[in-house]
């Protein structure tokens, strides 16, 4: 009975020490960089609020957020690497690529104002309408 309890105790200590190692490894993977920007209408003046903003690295989505009332967004705790920022509001969208490396002189990369790049296809038909 004592040997079974001792074995159980050793197994529990082993599992708890492994989970602590995982937490330490995750903490070291948090980066010191951030990306911020502002999503604007095609007139380059009016902000686009509540737009979806997605952050990708190697075609995998890392994070997402919404723009605030002034069209601003940000992502933090990023490491060096290449990121794709995809902004969407309805059928309108824009995409920017950001490269973060040790040559960046600041930790916060401002990609500035981003205007809508992709517009939906709209057809307007004018003419005389008759009701029978």
TrEMBL record:
<dbReference type="InterPro" id="IPR013783">
    <property type="entry name" value="Ig-like_fold"/>
</dbReference>
<feature type="signal peptide">
    <location>
        <begin position="1"/>
        <end position="19"/>
    </location>
</feature>
<dbReference type="Pfam" id="PF13620">
    <property type="entry name" value="CarboxypepD_reg"/>
</dbReference>
<protein>
    <recommendedName>
        <fullName>Carboxypeptidase regulatory-like domain-containing protein</fullName>
    </recommendedName>
</protein>
<keyword id="KW-0732">Signal</keyword>
């Amino acid at each position: 009975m004592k040997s079974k309890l001792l074995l159980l105790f050793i197994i529990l200590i082993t599992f708890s020490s492994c989970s602590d190692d995982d937490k330490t490894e995750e903490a070291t993977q948090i980066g010191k960089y951030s990306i911020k920007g502002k999503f604007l209408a095609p007139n380059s003046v009016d902000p686009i609020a509540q737009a979806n903003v997605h952050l990708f690295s190697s075609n995998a989505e890392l994070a997402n957020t919404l723009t605030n009332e002034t069209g601003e967004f940000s992502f933090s705790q990023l490491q060096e690497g290449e990121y794709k920022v995809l902004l969407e509001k309805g059928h309108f969208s824009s995409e920017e690529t950001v490269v973060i490396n040790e040559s960046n002189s600041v930790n916060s990369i401002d990609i500035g104002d981003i205007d809508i790049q992709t517009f939906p296809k709209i057809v307007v038909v004018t003419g005389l309408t008759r009701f029978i």
